[in-house]
Amino acid sequence: MAEDSAPPAGAAPDWTISQDWASYSSEEHAVWDRLFTRQSRMLPNRVVPAFMEGLDVLRMSKSGIPDFDELNERLFRATGWQVVAVPGLVPDAIFFEHLANRRFVAGRFIRTPDQFDYLQEPDIFHDVFGHVPLLVHPVFADYMQAYGMGGLRAAKLGMIEALARLYWYTVEFGLIRDGGDIKLYGAGIISSYGESLFALDDPSPNRIGFDLERVMRTRYRIDDYQQSYFVIDSFDDLLRQTRDADLGPIYERLRGMDTIAEDAVLPTDGLLHAGTQAYAAARASG
Ligand SMILES: [Fe+2]
């Protein structure tokens, strides 16, 4: 998230801009279509079923970059959420304020063909394909709003970092139980072909049952696949553990505690899979 609080030229005070859908080139629409086809073929048995339902409700299989006006009509009808375009990363307070009001901020640009598998700043494919389908799910939709409201409170208490880790390990890189299986729901995974395979199948990362305080203390990778993933039981359970928890005393405890390394396994963890960390070790040794 950006630190500067003044919106860039051309953006509204709340940092939103027009999506200007008509200005996308046919090459840009084609990049979306290629990414969409690859992910939507691979995901069905890997992703939480609510994600596929969201794609369907929002008619996202329609060719080309989605037009936010069309998308918002269906999304708003489903859960009262909307997608708004922003020029890039926005300050924390702006981000939380939008979420608290059921607005999801999305970049309007799309990656170029040579950035097909990796780019640092979230583009419209990550933001819209990765995040928006689950906003159709009523409980997940409530969680996202609760997160925004929690963010506004955490900012006042100086606890943004702890809350950012919660976002990272749920909204971006979360796994969820589905019957006897583990499935994907985090947008950072869902929008990445490589990580959609790695997060579920690779023996390298830890897979650990979700625990709010544990997650809020755990550092994360921004440069590569995660070394630990946290598995929630259900969206209901996630909402219960976060919105309904009294975070004040939790924050007080966290202030006196060290952070936890990305790859650590603690004796108190509900460990589902002890990662070999072979992938991270191989990357570190170059
Ligand atoms: Fe994201």
Automatic annotation (TrEMBL):
Pathway: Amino-acid degradation; L-phenylalanine degradation; acetoacetate and fumarate from L-phenylalanine: step 1/6. Pfam families: Biopterin_H. It catalyses: (6R)-L-erythro-5,6,7,8-tetrahydrobiopterin + L-phenylalanine + O2 = (4aS,6R)-4a-hydroxy-L-erythro-5,6,7,8-tetrahydrobiopterin + L-tyrosine. One of its GO terms (molecular function) is phenylalanine 4-monooxygenase activity. Its EC number is 1.14.16.1. Keywords: Iron, Metal-binding, Monooxygenase, Oxidoreductase, Phenylalanine catabolism. InterPro entries: ArAA_hydroxylase, ArAA_hydroxylase_Fe/CU_BS, ArAA_hydroxylase_sf, Aro-AA_hydroxylase_C_sf, Aromatic-AA_hydroxylase_C, Phe-4-hydroxylase_mono. It comes from the Bacteria. Residues 1-286 form the Biopterin-dependent aromatic amino acid hydroxylase family profile domain. CDD domains: pro_PheOH (cd03348). It is an enzyme of class 1 (oxidoreductase). Belongs to the biopterin-dependent aromatic amino acid hydroxylase family. NCBIfam families: Phe4hydrox_mono (TIGR01267), PRK11913.1-2 (NF008877). This is Phenylalanine-4-hydroxylase. The lineage of its organism: Bacteria, Pseudomonadati, Pseudomonadota, Alphaproteobacteria, Sphingomonadales. The gene is phhA.
